[in-house]
Structures are given as C-alpha cells and as structure tokens.
Amino acid sequence: MATTTLTHSSALARLGHALSDETRTRILLALREAPAHPSDLADALGVSRQVMSNQLACLRGCGLVESIPDGRRTWYRLSDPHLANALNDLLMLVLVVDPECCGPECTCA
Predict the structure, then answer these.
(1) C-alpha angle 48-91-6 in degrees, rounded to nearest 5
(2) CA 48, CA 22: separation in Å to the nearest integer?
(3) Angle between helix 81-92 and helix 22-33 axes, rounded to 10 deg
C-alpha cells in the first residue's frame, strides 16, 4: 500500500473543495476537453464573467488550473494532464445516494 503524506491529503482536500461547487466542477470538466478563454467558458456555462473570474481564481489557487498569457487574452488549462484522467475516472463512479443525506440540512458531518 502506498504511503499517504500530508501533501497527498492536502491535494485531495483542494480537489474536494473545487468539486464542491457546481460551477467549478463544470469548469474543470470543460477544461479536460480543451483549454479555453474565460469569456468563452462563461458563455458556455451561462455564468457572468465576474463569476467565471472568481471561480478560475479559486481553481488557480487550488493548483488545479493554470493561466497561459496569449497577447491581450489568457487561456486556462488543467495544471496537470493526470487531472483529466482523474475526472474521467470519477465520472465512471456509480454511487447510491441517500436523498436525505448531504443536503443543506445534513447532520452527518
């Protein structure tokens, strides 16, 4: 069994934080397909440019995406190609969800 380090735990916690927000999750799923400009992502996901800017800043701070300057514009892409594979693997999971658990009133935490 592989040894888990604080770095591994921290990385998984950052990924969990990113995936806890639907907009951030949709951004990550879009970027696994191809790099994109923030304005294009905002249009594709139906959010404001300000929301997109805030969410990309969060994802950048978590180390999950990186920005690439391109003249007056900036591209965003996943920071590691393994992340696309991990997202694909997560999409293959089938979970049985208790509809009464993990909602806004959840007490299981």
Answers:
(1) 85
(2) 14
(3) 120
> pLDDT digits over 45-104, tens only?
999 999 999 999 999 999 999 999 999 999 999 999 999 999 999 888 866 767 777 766
Alpha helices in 20-105 (DSSP H): 22-33, 38-45, 49-61, 81-92
Q: What is the CATH number of the domain that holds 72?
A: 1.10.10.10
Assess if residue 4 is contained within a domain.
no
- Three-state DSSP at 45 gives helix
Q: Do residues 70 and 51 make contact, with C-beta atoms less than 8 angstroms apart?
A: no
Specify if 99 maps to a domain.
no
Q: What is the pLDDT of residues 8-20, one digit of tens each?
A: 888 889 999 999 9
- The region that residue 69 occupies, defined by phi over 0 for left and psi between -120 and 50 for alpha, beta otherwise, is beta
Question: Measured at the alpha carbon of residue 54, what is the angle toward residues 48 and 55, in degrees to the nearest 5?
Answer: 90
Region of 63 please: left (phi>0), alpha (psi -120 to 50) or beta: left
